[in-house]
Amino acid sequence: MTYNELMIESLSSLLEDGEKLLYPIYGTLKAKKNNCFGYFGLTENYLLIALLQGSSKMIDWTTRVPLDLRKVIVKKCLFPQQYNICIEFNEGENACLRVSKKVYGIESQEDNLKGFIEYIQTR
Fold first, then answer.
1. Cα 69 vs. chain centroid, distance in angstroms?
2. 8-31: b or e for each residue (b if 16 or more CB lie within 10 Å)?
3. Rounded to whole angstroms, how far apart are CA atoms 115 and 90?
4. Do residues 64 and 56 touch, judged by C-beta distance below 8 A?
5. How high is the mean pLDDT of the chain?
6. Are 70 and 89 in contact (CB under 8 A)?
7. How far apart (Å, rounded) are the C-alpha atoms in residues 91 and 102?
8. Three-class SS string for 74-88?
9. CA gap 3, 80 in Å, rounded
10. By percentage, how much of the chain surpasses pLDDT 70?
11. Which of 2, 18, 73, 90 sits a CA distance of 20 to 30 A from 47?
12. Taking the CA atoms of the chain, what radius of gyration do you get in angstroms?
């Protein structure tokens, strides 16, 4: 299974009836003690998260987070073509993602990253 297929399959498994997967991307969820690689996608009302187990192709943890947003901050990183996306929710913990425009094995990354950022900023 390719990385793109794994991303689509793992995020699609989180969809409920009538939902459509929007802008799936690969990135890093930045946490206090360690960072987790994973796949992130959107529906009209949820952020979908599927974290990988280490550097393997095994999904370790998944969740759906309501898009009840307080604020979204997007910053370009010092490394070329990388972005920090900090999402502040009205309830629950914030999510900070580091995402590259180009990812090996996922050709749609750049287009989906642009759509992902635009979508959450308009919420």
1. 15
2. bebbeebeeeebeebbbbbbbbbe
3. 22
4. no
5. 93
6. yes
7. 32
8. EEECCCCCEEEEEEE
9. 22
10. 99
11. 2
12. 13
- Give the integer Cα–Cα distance in Å for 99 and 93: 19
**Torsions phi, psi of 39, nearest 5?**
-110, 145
Q: Is 80 exposed, middle or buried (0-12, 13-18, 19+ CB in 10 A)?
A: exposed
The label of the residue with tokens 């929710």 reads 89
Closest CA to 28 of 81, 99, 76, 82: 99
What's the CA gap between 107 and 52, in Å, rounded? Answer: 19
Q: Across the beta sheet with 69-76, what order do the strands follow?
A: 59-66, 46-52, 35-42, 22-30, 95-100, 82-89, 69-76
Q: How far is the CA of 92 from the CAs of 1, 121, 123, in angstroms?
A: 34, 19, 17
**Amino acid in the structure at residue 45:** N
Structural tokens at position 64:
């759906």
| Structure confidence at residue 100 (pLDDT) | 95
pLDDT at 91 (0 to 100) = 93
- According to DSSP, the residues that pair with 48 across neighbouring strands are 41, 64
